[in-house]
Amino acid sequence: MLSPPSPRRACVIALGLVAIGSLVAAGPCDIYYSGGTPCVAAHSTTRSLYNAYAGALYQVKRGSDGKTQDIGPLSAGGVADAAAQDSFCASTTCLITTIYDQSGRGNHLRQAPPGGFKGPESNGYDNLASATGAPVTLNGKKAYGVFMSPGTGYSNNAANGIATGDAAEGMYAVLDGTHYNGACCFDYGNAEVSSRDTGNGHMEAIYFGDCTAWGSGSGSGPWIMVDLENGLFSGFSAGKNTGDLSISYRFVTAAVKGRPNQWAIRGANAASGSLSTYYSGVRPSGGYNPMSKEGAIILGIGGDNSNGAQGTFYEGAMTAGYPSDATENAVQADIVAAQYTTTSLTSGPTLPIGSAISLRATTACCTTRYLTHNSSNTIVIEVVSSSSSSTLKGQATWVVRAGLGNSGCVSFESKDVPGSYVRHYNFALVLAANDGSKQFREDATFCPQAGLSGQGSVVRSWNYPTRFLRHYNNIGYVASEGGVHVFDAAGTYNDDVSWVVGPGFV
Ligand SMILES: *[C@@H]1O[C@H](CO)[C@@H](O)[C@H](O)[C@H]1NC(C)=O
Question: Where does it localize (predicted)?
Answer without folding.
Answer: Secreted
